[in-house]
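Tokens help. Consider this.
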Amino acid sequence: MTAVAIDTAEITPRRRMSEERFWAIVLIAPYVLVFALFVVYPVLYGFWLGAGASSFRKLFQDPIFVTTLWNTAIFVLIAVNLKMVVALGLSAFFILEYRWVRWLSVIFIIAWAMPSIPTILSIRWMFNPEWGLINNLLFKWFQIEGPGWLTERHYGLGLAILVHIWKSLPFWTLILLAARLAIPKDLYESADVDGATRWQRFRFISWPAMRAVYMTSVLLSSIWTLGDFNSVYLLTGGGPNDSTQVLATLGVRYLRIDQIDVGMAAVICALPAILPMVFFLMKRLSRTDEQ
């Protein structure tokens, strides 16, 4: 019989799970299970329903879908660009060191802090073309018959864009205001000594320091605006005759008529626009972290 030499150095003992790690897994397991059952599974099931070719065929043949694409493009392009430009200008105003400006900034933030449902429904009541406050005031003061704010496509979509800008403008103003406050005041003092104008101060000091934050905010705002449901649904409900539908509300329209597969297909159609923006957003954020 030959003895087999065993090199004990090559045998690694099995690592036992620590007690802290074991209890961490035990405690987090119920949350993971609930998340998988009530979030991951419904989303994947919905995507599976809407992934069929027949669902997309029904969707593309619906004339409302083409109108929805145009509405979504108009909504995102106008709302994001107008909102960010106005926020950039307001950030320069709210940086002024006056007591009344600070009180005004508190009032300005209220629109963003209040819940969306009561505020947007109150605006819907004000712009009701039959008995709303705005049309009544126009007729009482100027003897003018007010337009159909919520019964005509252009007025309804334009009003939804204004409501979205009004609701989210304070948030982006605060972001850009924080970026302005991070700029050293010595740069502005040196520019004043050199006789720089306001435009030169903005062009050579403010904008280079705020450009990264501004572009990142534009990307993030575009993603949020593309998924804005409340501004359109609570204000116009997609009407009149589904003429103000956007991709964020189109899925609900099909769900209400029991076409779940087409509704999920409509939701999936927003992914080709969202995923590239998410990619560029994460790329910009990672670049900022490296710097």
Notes: The CA atoms of residues 142 and 246 lie 35 Å apart. The chain has two domains: 18-50, 63-290. The chain has a mean pLDDT of 84.
